[in-house]
């Protein structure tokens, strides 16, 4: 039995060599395997940008009406899918270009009271809201010293043409304060020529700050954080400033749940854009081919 349990001298020699190799590893200057991997990873080029996981998510700025209402009370997956199909069919018939709040548009619609007649209205987009087939936008213009606003349903079948005359953004998400501003900030000629930007250029941001007329105003603009108004403080009294300070809610910018309730999760957005990506991309390519046939017109100077 003792002879069976006895090991040969070669096995003792191999065990001793393994122990010496393990103990001498800590005295060596050679890096470990894990450290070698880390060094290789650190040698990657520093200027490389991380790849965007889903490039279709950028469509949420160009086509915001494709995203459903974030309120769960108004969500219905079947209705939303049918609406997206109808919206794509409508876009295949009428070219609905890219525009934002602050863009100057010319909309041509068929007159429901006169067969074969059309009406054209030119104005600045002061509001864009709604989702799905209920998406709408509002144009404003001053004609003969009278402010006129027209609200259009984006997918209204009576719309025949939507033309972008000046593509730009403003500092605020809504321009409803133009109702109380001087008329010169929202006066545009009916025969205004379109200003075509070169392909691939970013959307310009108009940083003009309008001047409001004396009070009374339609809303309490002093209680809203507006970046596009310059003379609000001139028309305020001391009691108005005190009331504004009392009604401030600076803690809302830290409310993560409020932002979550106002947006659609990224997973839902990826599913929606994956459904309509191919057709929207084909429409954009065909629109680019048509835009190459038009001449470039430099934008005019903005109001200061």
List keywords for this structure.
five-stranded antiparallel beta sheet; alpha+beta; 304 residues; extended; single chain
Question: How would you describe this structure to a colleague?
Answer:
This protein is 30% helix and 14% strand. The model is unreliable at 1-5 and 24-52 (pLDDT under 50). 12% of the residues are buried. The longest helix has 26 residues, at 266-291. The protein is extended, with a radius of gyration of 31 Å. A five-stranded antiparallel β-sheet has the order 4-3-2-1-5, with no helix packed on it. It has helices at residues 2-5, 9-24, 33-42, 59-62, 77-93, 238-246, 256-261, 266-291; strands spanning 104-110, 118-129, 136-143, 146-153, 159-166. By secondary structure, the chain is α+β, with helices and mostly antiparallel strands. Helix 5 (77-93) runs parallel beside helix 8. Strand 1 (104-110) and strand 2 form a beta hairpin. It has eight helices and five strands, in the order αααααβββββααα.
């Amino acid at each position: 039995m003792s002879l069976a349990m006895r090991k040969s001298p070669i096995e003792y020699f191999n065990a001793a060599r393994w122990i010496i190799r393990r103990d001498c590893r800590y005295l060596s200057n050679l890096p470990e395997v894990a450290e070698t991997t880390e060094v290789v990873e650190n040698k990657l080029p520093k200027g490389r940008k991380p790849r965007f996981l889903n490039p279709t998510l950028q469509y949420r700025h160009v086509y915001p009406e494709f995203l459903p209402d974030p309120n769960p009370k108004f969500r219905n997956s079947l209705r939303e899918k049918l609406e997206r199909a109808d919206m794509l069919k409508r876009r295949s018939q009428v070219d609905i270009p890219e525009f934002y709040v602050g863009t100057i548009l010319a909309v041509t619609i068929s007159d429901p009271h006169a067969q074969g007649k059309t009406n054209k209205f030119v104005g600045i987009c002061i509001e864009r809201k709604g989702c799905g087939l209920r998406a709408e936008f509002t144009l404003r213009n001053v004609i003969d010293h009278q402010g006129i606003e027209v609200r259009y349903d984006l997918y209204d079948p009576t719309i025949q043409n939507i033309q972008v005359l000046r593509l730009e953004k403003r500092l605020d998400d809504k321009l409803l304060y133009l109702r109380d501003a001087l008329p010169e900030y929202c006066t545009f000629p009916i025969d205004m020529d379109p200003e075509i930007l070169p392909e691939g250029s970013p959307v310009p941001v108009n940083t003009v700050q309008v001047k409001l007329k004396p009070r009374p105003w339609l809303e309490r603009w002093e209680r809203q954080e507006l970046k596009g108004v310059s003379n609000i403080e001139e028309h305020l009294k001391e009691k108005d400033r005190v009331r504004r300070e009392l009604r401030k809610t600076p803690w809302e910018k830290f409310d993560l749940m409020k932002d979550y309730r106002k947006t659609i999760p990224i997973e839902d957005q990826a599913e929606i854009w994956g459904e309509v990506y191919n057709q929207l991309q084909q429409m954009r390519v065909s629109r680019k081919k048509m835009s190459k046939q038009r001449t470039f017109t430099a934008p005019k100077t903005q109001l200061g």
